[in-house]
# Entry
Amino acid sequence: MNQQVATFLDLPARSPGGSVELFLDLYTGPQPLVPARAFMLRPPGRRPAPINGLDLLAVGGKCLDGPAFRQYIVRLRRALTAALEPASIDVVHLQHLAFGATPALMRALPLHPRIALVHGTDLLFAETHRDQLTVLRETARFADAIVVPTGAMADRLLRFAPQTDRRKIEHIPWGIPDHLLATEPTPRRPRRPGQFLRLLYAGRLTTEKGGDHLVKALAAVSGIELSIAAPHREFQTLAPVLKRLGVHARYLGWLRRPQLWKVFDEHDVLVMPSTTLEAMGLVALEAQARGLAVAYQPVAGLRDALGTSALATDFTNPRALARDLERLKSSADLLPVLRAAGRANAARYPLSATAAALTGLGKQLT
# Structure
């Protein structure tokens, strides 16, 4: 008999980001991989189109610090208590070790086994917000198991919560949809000598994602074409930097994933210039599954997930980046080698394996 999970990601439905996509992939849809009562926040204003298997909580006041944060947790807990029947839930999946949903869900279901999932942003915010660090440490203490997608996330967690019982930490890699791995990539034409190298940036443009570093480095590089798929408001923030540095970028909009997968086929390299850490870099794995080569900043998380299957470079060093991009343009063999290595690497991370491991862990705890 399938376990029933209760889980909550306190972001507005339809928010951009890899954590949201993973959450929806695992817990929602007509036949979710992990049967769950799954919750997100109802966005302000117009109600979004419904997502099968997702409940929306109309709770405002999302914040990070101080008395307002504690009041926000109380409102979330009340909404969850009204929506959930404890007897129907077997195990709790805490998305992130910080933010409001985690303490609210623990208080709404205080007697259920708890699996906490590290996503990366929880570690970043715990480093800069005292209340988030407090929540992270409490979650690490009271969770029955802590799931990390990479060893780097475990190391970073233990820096912030050194008293954590290491026996509770479980390594379960995140995954990408199985059907993406089962589909053969679109055959690519060999690049002609002198042809521009088509680069794609896909994702959020928040500070830790390294968009500024990418643009500054590309200002000194010739023979490339840059496309950006990102939320519109974040691209607007980057646009003045692009203009000031004379870097032309084709803006693609914020694409739904099937659209993004098609866009992968139109480019030569996905660039991942993240400056701090990535929980795993799912967009890079999806690109590899589609046969797109990846160039990345070797930060925590990405090193674990990509290793030598992608080109590690330094997006903070224009000279080093120019040298590596020139290698990609001039070598007839490097891009095909990276595509093949990337495809083999992505095949290691089917989403079904992630779901099965989480379910198995839950059964051990109940």
Notes: The chain has 15 helices and 13 strands. The chain has two domains: 5-175+350-365, 179-346. The mean pLDDT is 94.
